[in-house]
Amino acid sequence: MKKLFSILSVLSVIAMLTMRCKKDDKPVPPEVEEPKPMASFTYTKPDTAKFLEYQFTGIVKNAKEILWQFGDDSTSVEVSPFHKYAYEGDYHVVLSVRNSQGYWASKEVLLNVVDPSFDKTKVGENYFLTVGGTLTVSRDNGNGPNSGEGSLKVVDGKSDTKFFQSGFSGDLVMKFELNTVQVAGAYTLISANDSPDRDPKTWSLQGSEDGIKWITLDSRTNITFASRFERKLYHFNNNVAYKSYRLNVKANNGSRDFQMAEWTVNKKQP
User: Fold this and answer.
1) What is the structure's pLDDT at 24?
2) Are residue 162 and residue 260 in the same domain, yes or no?
3) What range defines the domain where residue 54 resides?
4) What is the pTM of this model?
């Protein structure tokens, strides 16, 4: 009987506490939803002669937080910041905004920062000849690098000689280690005297500071040479002084053999 009484007493206390809690609880008003944020921006060059400098103007609504990302690891929280790039190149500029409830919006623009005086038809010195170094290839001519069509002919500065490799299978690597590190911004390829089907078609150019880690500087796919001894010039964005450069040739125009008259890696402009 005492046990039953104790159980009833406990239940009574619980019921009283529950009723008291219900009486004391106040309804929580619903959270008012804020207007959604909006983000856009414009940009100008305050001085056209200073092509690296940009003034960004944010067009922002209903935002509590603002973040600019300029594509070069720099950021800003100003509405309309001024920014100066260190180098020319393509930069993804992103403006992101957020309200206090976590809603966000963003605007992204690909900004092409270029020197208006840059001439794409011109190229600087050929480092293979002016700086010097050592060429190695993944597979050489059967008669060796110093033979009449050996690998050294591709870096001798002469378009009337060529490097010829039989049994091409899309894995040719030509590497040149410079005597001193250099910042390159361009390279050239010259087609050889005959057999267009032996010309390089798909390749990539890479640079390395230590010969271990390689950075891709430029890639080309399905390229054709219109004539014999044609020189193709390619510019790329780079601000790192590399010790070694290599050309990875992945495909030619269908032949089982490969040939090329000349390969250079160059300073970007004279």
Assistant:
1) 52
2) yes
3) 38-113
4) 0.72
